[in-house]
Design a protein that fits this description.
Layout: H1 2-29, H2 39-58, E1 59-62, E2 66-72, E3 78-81, E4 84-87, E5 99-105, E6 109-113, H3 123-129, E7 131-133, E8 143-153, H4 158-165, H5 169-187, H6 193-196, H7 198-212, E9 222-234, H8 236-344, H9 346-357, E10 365-368, E11 373-376
Antiparallel strand pairs: 1-4, 2-3, 2-5, 6-8, 7-8, 8-9, 10-11
Transmembrane segments: 6-22, 42-64
Pfam families: Band_7
Organism: Candidatus Spechtbacteria bacterium RIFCSPLOWO2_02_FULL_38_8
Length: 385
């Protein structure tokens, strides 16, 4: 904005000088007696042009995503300018008509090598534009590579970049170094390494390339990141060989799969036979155990029945013995009581003795009286007799 204002002021002065000169010339052709003054308009015009040039060289504007290198063409000194507006004479680095300013963008820039054109749709066309790199495989078959990545400037090393490579640093330095690095890394690997281990290959190339973009003090001048190999191609002979190998590998895999299928089938049949055999063995063992259990159950039932019967017999014997003992004890007690009673009453003892000797037959004696015949039972009433 400040540069624009300065330029507008210079253009205004230049326009004023032109207009002043025009009016003076017009006065002359009108025949007026006024003397034409040339010095004022000319000075105004020269001052306006000078001011415009001053505005173009005395004001340097550096964007927020830029860094500028300012070179003094008289002394050869080089310095850097950060983002912002730098105005002479407030900034001693800026000298009108003497300093040369070069702007560098700090944004990431795409760097691409071996890029195929839009019209390139065949493998032969791709090989024309791609980077051809040898391999360490027998015969050193080449590999055609297309690389893409990002590069951005280290603002602390922009002076070194300006001195060595100027503004065309990508084409003059980064891309050639990338090509040589890509060839060097691939030359140490087999031809199929990029196809089988592409992430490892990309990382290896990025690390090797970053190591090539360092200053003498080991600080990177350019940073690189996200290097990738989007496409690669082999020679027709290598492709034919790979197709043959792929076909043989496919047939070998088919055979391996068939062998594995047959092995799995045999294994399944073996497992089924073993399972059936194990089931039969288990069934036979289960039946034998069931028979043993039934036999043991019957044996146990017999033993329990015998034990129960023996227990009942013992219980009956014990009960009978107890009853006999109780009876004997009762009879003994009764006999003792009886003996004691009889010993106290001799008549009762005599009568008891008669009763014991009685055979159970009752003799009858018929005695007549007034009322008729009356039976008399002897021994039933001894006292009455």
């Amino acid at each position: 904005m400040i540069r624009v204002l300065f330029i507008l002021l210079g253009l205004a002065a230049l326009g004023g000088g032109v207009y002043w000169l025009y009016t003076r010339i017009t006065y002359k052709y009108r025949g007026e007696s006024a003397k034409v003054k040339w010095l004022g308009p000319v000075l105004l015009m020269v001052g306006g042009l000078f001011w415009v040039f001053i505005s173009l060289t005395a004001v340097v504007v550096v964007g927020a995503r830029e860094v500028a290198v300012i070179e003094n063409t008289w002394t050869g000194n080089i310095d850097t300018l950060g983002s912002g507006t730098h105005i002479w004479p407030f900034d001693p680095k800026v000298v009108p008509f003497v300093t040369k300013v070069t702007h560098y963008s700090l944004e990431r820039q795409i760097v691409e090598i071996g890029e195929p054109t839009n019209e390139c749709t065949t493998a032969d066309c791709f090989r024309v534009t791609a980077v051809a790199a040898d391999s360490n495989s027998p015969g050193r078959p080449p590999v055609y590579l297309h690389g893409r990545g990002f590069a951005f400037i280290n603002p602390d090393k922009v002076e070194v970049l300006y001195r060595r490579y100027g503004t065309d640093w990508k084409d003059r330095w980064v891309e050639p170094v990338w090509v040589s690095t890509l060839k060097s890394v691939q030359g140490q690997k087999p031809y199929d390494f990029v196809g089988n281990y592409r992430p490892d290959f990309e990382t290896l190339v990025e690390e090797r390339l970053q190591g090539e973009l360092l200053d003498t003090d080991g600080v990177p001048i350019i940073f690189v990141s996200q290097l990738a190999i989007p496409n690669f191609e082999f020679t027709p002979e290598t492709n034919q060989y790979l197709e043959t190998v792929q076909q043989k590998e496919f047939e070998r895999q088919q055979q391996q799969q068939q062998i594995e299928i047959n092995r799995q089938r045999q294994l399944a049949e073996q497992i089924a036979a073993e399972t059936s055999y194990n089931v039969e063995i288990k069934n036979a063992e289960r039946d034998r155990e069931a028979q043993i259990a039934r036999a043991e159950g019957r044996k146990r039932d017999t033993e329990l029945s015998a034990e129960a019967q023996a227990f009942a017999t013992r219980q009956n014997a014990d009960a009978n013995a107890y009853a006999i003992r109780e009876i004997a004890e009762a009879e003994a007690d009764a006999l003792t009581v009886k003996n004691e009673a009889l010993s106290r009453n001799p008549e009762a003892l005599l009568r008891y003795t008669q009763l014991l000797q009685w055979n159970g037959t009752v003799p009858q004696i018929v005695v007549g009286n007034a009322d008729g015949n009356v039976p008399i039972f002897p021994f039933l009433n001894l006292e009455a007799r």
